[in-house]
Amino acid sequence: TKTKKIAILPGDGIGPEVMAEAEKILDVVAPRYGLSLEKRRANVGGAGIDAEGKALPDSTVETCRWADAILFGSVGGPKWENLPPDEQPERGALLPLRKLFGLYANLRPAIIFPQLKDASPLKPEVIGDRFDVLVVRELTGGIYFGQPKGRDAERGFDTLVYTKPEIERIAHVAFKAARLRDKKVTSIDKANVLASMVLWREVVTGVAKDYPDVELNHMYVDNAAMQLVKNPRQFDVLLCGNMFGDILSDEASMITGSLGMLPSASLAEGSFGLYEPSGGSAPDIAGQGIANPIAQILSAGMMLKYSFGLSEAYDAIYQAIESVLAQGLRTGDIMTPGCTRVNTKEMGDAIVRALG
Ligand code: NAD
Ligand code: IPM
Ligand code: MN
């Protein structure tokens, strides 16, 4: 048995609700693969502000430093929206965590379970046999972090800047991922307007020379947003900067039925990572126990795969989810006629049962 340390940061809104289900799944799956998990929980986001006066308390950073990986819920909500921007959950905790731990590579696999074809807003013939896209999103640069940024009463500004090394390292992640898939990378940019994106296109083209077995295409982001709903099957790996990846991953998630289905892994060099659903704290449904826990559960699965090297554990979780969907169980966001509506806890319990 090997022991790994994980920091559990449930956060706000539906975060704690879906985290409880992911923990149940981990408790069942980890021991089967000879893994003993030592867990410590910490406050983050609004929960950090309320309990310790700060979105990212020092004690939380310490817990994350102690850990081999972070399992993260989601942060933010109306309660904290009137604080100074830098103290709010998103800018005060999530972005600093990503930066602090060098989590530059965000993997967002949007894969439709065949059972959920009816839950997708796209026609079945548009989806075809399979929709399986990996969004590779640069996570510690671009307009989110570029300096200067600021505002006064009359003017607000942000800076979109990318350096060659930043583009190179995320491009390598995308090409390596493509090698294990359909060997196609579509690099998303706005090189017709933005200088940073002219560099992006140039550098990605250069990196592609190391991967002659992978096909590279370039696409403007506006066209990509359109192509995703017109012909989603043309894509394999989407390589994006920080903001374009944020937007296109939400769009891709909906093709699979719901944002509540999309997990993510935010990886540093080495095996450290932060794992979180791609969606947020969902204030519109928080507190009702009806959120879809699958994105959080798959994020926990990605932690087992990417930080702890247990891809079979990820596969087992994936298959358990598939079998629960085949039984017709659905949370509200993926509900379709003829299926049985379940709440967050019932979905988690069903996945635990399906694990056997
Ligand atoms: P959101 O992702 O929270 O919600 C968008 C829509 O998707 C809502 O209708 C919500 O109910 C639905 N949804 C999301 N996850 C779901 C799930 N698991 N099950 C069922 N439905 C789900 O985005 P928003 O409303 O724009 O933002 C709400 C708050 O969350 C904001 O404070 C935002 O900054 C924050 N946020 C945090 C993260 C994060 O912590 N990683 C990510 C995105 C947004
Ligand atoms: C995400 C979220 C975050 C982002 C916000 C909450 C800062 O939307 O993880 O997709 O924009 O990166
Ligand atoms: Mn987002």
Automatic annotation (TrEMBL):
| Site residues, Important for catalysis | 144, 190
Acetylation as UniProt keyword? no
- What residues bind NAD(+), as annotated? 77-90, 280-292
- Give a Gene Ontology cellular component term annotated to this protein: cytosol
Q: Which residues bind Mg(2+)?
A: 222, 246, 250
Q: State the UniProt keywords alphabetically.
A: Amino-acid biosynthesis, Branched-chain amino acid biosynthesis, Cytoplasm, Leucine biosynthesis, Magnesium, Manganese, Metal-binding, NAD, Oxidoreductase
Molecular function terms from GO = 3-isopropylmalate dehydrogenase activity; magnesium ion binding; NAD binding
The protein here is known as 3-isopropylmalate dehydrogenase
